[in-house]
Amino acid sequence: MKRRTLVVGAGALAVPRIAFAGPPERKGTAVMAWHVTISPSWFDPSTAPPQITPFGMLYAIHDALVRPYPGHKMGPSLAEKWQESEDGKTYEFTLRQGLAFHNGDPLTADDVKFSFERYKGAGASELHDHVEQVEVVDPRLVRFRLKEAWPDFMTFYGTTASAAGIVVPKRYLESVGDDGFKKHPIGAGPYKFVRATPGIEVVLEANPSYWRRVPNVKTLVMRSIPEATTRALMVKTGEADIGYVIDGPDAEDLKGVPGVQVVASKHASIFWIEFAKQWDAKSPWHDRRVRLAANYALNRKEINDAACLGFCPPAGVIVPRVMEFALQTEPMPYDVRKAKQLLAEAGFPNGFDAGDFAAIPGFPTVADAVVNELNAVGIRVKLRSMERGAFYANWRDKKLPGLFMTAAGNSGNAASRVEAFMYSKGSYASGGYPDIDELFLAQANERNREKREAILYKIQQLTIDKVMYAPVMDLRALMGIGPRVSRHTITDVWMSPFPSYEDMEIKD
Fold first, then answer.
1. What's the pLDDT tens digit per position in 366-400?
2. CATH number belonging to domain 3-11+26-210+480-506
3. Which of 41, 281, 308, 353 is deepest in the core (most CB within 10 A)?
């Protein structure tokens, strides 16, 4: 088979090693204060939603054939190299020698095949629709045969666009079952699962056999602290070493604390409002003018300043501007007068009661600002609180209110975002339009980059023309870093807000 590409990672060319003492004993404990309740479902990659948050746990416990890590947007990980055939229909992955899961079971191509076939999370339908067969050639070689050339295979398989490339232990999972795996996950990542107290914390310990390096910090404590001000206070007092997603006012307060840093992430996340009832002819949201009014109601700059200290650029489309094939476009202007005029033209001169408004948990200032600004123009909504896991489940099952604000931070490119949220068959799409569906299917098999880019730009422009959404702003998560952290590694992993856990360092 002729090969078009060859990617080789560290360790692909074996260098003889002299065995002396074992790896050095790591010391120290680092506490991570999470902005959400950590869900046991995040221990199992097979159901990962189109979100970046679960990867903050998944990439601590597990590893993938190919994934982003420092110095690599899509680097060889469990696979030391991969090859793509000239016709783009076959991919082969060669595993590193001597890989093992945390329980000592060898990691082989059988585990790769098993993990892919049981995967049913974000992007699963696209992956399973395009992959005809997964072949175990030998214990270290696995071959993926595609039905036809698909330019996005590696985007979906090798980045956080999905968790399909993460490898789990076949024998252990078949022994304990899905529920048993969530209670005590076994992976091949830099940290081993030790214990979990549901809703409170997860304790992990360094894996001394991890292929990249022995993690610098022996113990990680992942603590669920959904209340924003409490997370900031924990960083301030030293109770937490890193506080995830600090709210704007609390981040402003932390900036003056000696030894504490506030670091903005660089991941591909964005907030937007979904008009889930726009396809219902009886709903006010069916009228394009009402959706347009909601867009004019948002003062995106002020929301950015209040919730994000100015780090989060106002958005004009729901594909983050840092993504490949993202349409670079200006946001809708803030215009209260225009919003009220459009509502009057649509038959609502005094506004209307729009009912409950659900907002993705963990971002209170953004949610409050959006609710206040919609109410100010006459779109009367009431914020509905919801736990993070319930929000995701209700979004997937189409059970959220007709108006809700969500966010997504997993990587990939514009096509993976279209697949999840704009394509009518997308697992998290509220609905869709035939012309967008047709264009999405056309770009999926287009190998000419310029032609494909033009199609994806057209899809994004159509979402603007149809006013499918109200984009709010690209998210740059504000992370609080405590004084014990000598190397935080936030922003070291491409398009991830989380640390490179094995590389972070703390002071003794």
1. 999 999 999 999 999 999 988 888 898 899 999 99
2. 3.40.190.10
3. 308
